[in-house]
Amino acid sequence: MAAPVDLELKKAFTELQAKVIDTQQKVKLADIQIEQLSKTKKHAHLTDTEVMMLVDETRMYEGVGRMFILQSKGVIHNQLLEKQRIAEEKIKELELAGSFVERFFLRFCIPMEEDKLLETKISGEIT
């Protein structure tokens, strides 16, 4: 009778390991995306700082595909600020989502799975 219980325990443990690995991958992906967005935000900030030092009459061009379009300093400045704002919003969303996944998984999923494993083990020992 021990063999079916061992198989059930092994299956439950394997499922738990799969959930842990999946959660870890989601958190790592969110961290990578946050890092990339932080770089984008910093790049836009540095570019904006340099643009603001230029004289208002300076000719500025925006890259669009394979061509460049003449834009005013104000338009370029607003685009860079918008880029920073969007990156900051996405960073906040990812941080919130990543912390939610970690907290939810650690508080609810793992204890529930551990309880299932324990119940399976106990029911196998009783019969």
Descriptive overview:
There is one protein chain. By secondary structure, the chain is mainly α. The chain has two helices and two strands, in the order αββα. The chain has helices spanning 2-53, 73-126, and strands spanning 60-64, 67-71. The chain has a two-stranded antiparallel sheet with strand order 1-2. Strand 1 and strand 2 (67-71) form a beta hairpin. Helix 1 runs antiparallel to helix 2 (73-126). The mean pLDDT is 83.
List the helices and strands and how they pair.
Elements lengths: L1 H52 L6 E5 L2 E5 L1 H54 L1
Antiparallel strand pairs: 1-2
Helix pairs in contact: 1-2
Number of helices: 2
Strands of the largest sheet, in order across it? 1-2
The total of beta strands comes to: 2
SSE string: HEEH
How large, in whole angstroms, is the Cα Rg? Answer: 26 Å
Structural class: mainly alpha
What's the overall geometry? rod-shaped
Q: What share of residues is helical?
A: over 70%
Q: Average pLDDT, to the nearest integer? A: 83
Taking the sheet with the most strands, its summary is: 2 strands, antiparallel
Strand content: 5-15%
Quick description:
The protein is mainly alpha-helical and 127 residues long.
Key traits:
mainly alpha; 83% helix
